[in-house]
Amino acid sequence: MTSVKDFRVEEEATATDLGRGRFVFSDRYSVFDWGEMPDHIPGKGASLCLMGAYNFELLDVNHVPTHYRGVVGEDGEVKDLGECESPPTEMAIDLTQVPDLPHEDGEYDYEAYHKVAGDNYLIPLEIVFRNTVPVGSSLRKRGEPADYGLDFDEWPDEPIDLPEPVVEFSTKYEEQDRYLDREEADSVAGAVDLDRLEELALAVNHILTEQAAEAGFSHEDGKIECLYHDGTVKVADVVGTFDENRFSYDGQQVSKEVVRQYYKRVQPEWVEAVSDAKQEAIETGEPNWREKCEIEPEHLPEEIVEALSDIYRAGTNAYVGYDWFDAPDIEDAVERVQDL
Predict the structure, then answer these.
(1) What share of the chain is helix, strand, coil (3-state, %, to 5)?
(2) Which residue spans within 157-268 are E strands per DSSP?
(3) What is the C-alpha end-to-end distance of the chain, expressed in Å?
């Protein structure tokens, strides 16, 4: 189980062959790497499953290899999204091996990971792509505007569109994600060519950005995860949802960023405690930073939960161009969260 979806194995992957399994999407959510938060958001799981399936099928049309096999209908059969009569909550996928990543004396042993992985494994990287640089983006700490083709002496106090998408690599299985330079990312990737991962990320970004624009959204950033099997790299996990990526509509965030900003404004002491615990973990080499966090996140008010439910369901309807959910128009849902 992850913080937002459950994982079912139907056929184990082997050293040579892919297995089969399912993602079961829940209404749980997570922010700031906390894990399961105190509330559930009705309709969120079905929204993410549907939007993810739609994007996987869009990638397939554009000849991007993925681990997607279909969604699970009400009859329990695996099928294309268009064959469903109601929003699915389960997605069928190919499985690869995910070896343990040993951690000792503050260091992660990727050599041990790849020794077990062989030629069939989940690449322990997140490949991040960015089309914009919002205020507060960690990118601003890792470089100057000129490093990214921007004609500014210093970072402006407003979001900035990038002239070309930027691709970065971060860790996936470490207790705290950290960005890597290309040399270290190449080592973490194992047998996979880093240029191939960047090429895939840019292709996915292009496809999602075009789809978003057609639906009236701005696609700001996101990520992919990939598996490697017998010389082929496939896009894995889930792609282009309001949890994996950052979208906006008419200048308003339509993503998990809405609830992140809510907690920053309403419970800043918890957000600060999380940040402090993470920093202490970095300094001490102790991976379990949550145990050091002395403040718990508060429950969301009922009206906030309802507004978030509306934005997930209305946003998915608008993005895929079909009213799968009984939800307000995207304009009404966006207006409601603007007041949060």
Answers:
(1) 35, 25, 40
(2) 160-171, 179-180, 217-229, 232-236, 246-249, 252-253
(3) 30
Superfamily of domain 5-338: ATP-grasp fold, B domain (3.30.470.20)
The DSSP secondary-structure symbol of 324 reads -
Residue 80 tokens, joined: 């294309």
Helix, coil or strand: residue 320:
helix
Instruction: Indicate the pTM of the whole model.
Output: 0.93
Question: pLDDT tens digits for the chain (340 residues)?
Answer: 457 899 999 999 999 999 999 999 999 999 998 989 999 999 999 999 999 999 999 999 999 999 999 999 989 999 999 999 999 999 999 999 999 999 888 789 999 999 999 999 999 999 999 999 988 788 999 999 999 999 999 999 998 999 999 999 999 998 888 999 999 999 999 999 999 999 999 999 999 999 999 999 999 999 999 999 999 999 999 999 999 999 999 989 898 888 988 999 999 999 999 999 988 888 887 778 888 888 999 999 999 999 999 999 999 999 999 999 999 999 999 999 887 7
Closest to 1 (Cα-Cα) out of 23, 34, 27? 23
If DSSP codes are grouped into helix, strand and coil, which group holds residue 3? Answer: coil
Of all helices (H) and strands (E), which one includes residue 60? Answer: helix 44-61
Listed by start position, the domains of the chain span 5-338
- Three-class DSSP labels, 282-301: HHHCCCCHHHHCCCCCCCCC
Let me know: does 147 contact 181? Beta carbons within 8 Å.
no
User: Is 53 strand, coil or helix?
Assistant: helix
* CB-based burial, 96-126: b 16+ in 10 Å, e otherwise: bbbbebeeeeeebebeebbeebbebbbbbbb
Q: Which residues pair with 221 in a beta bridge?
A: 130, 246
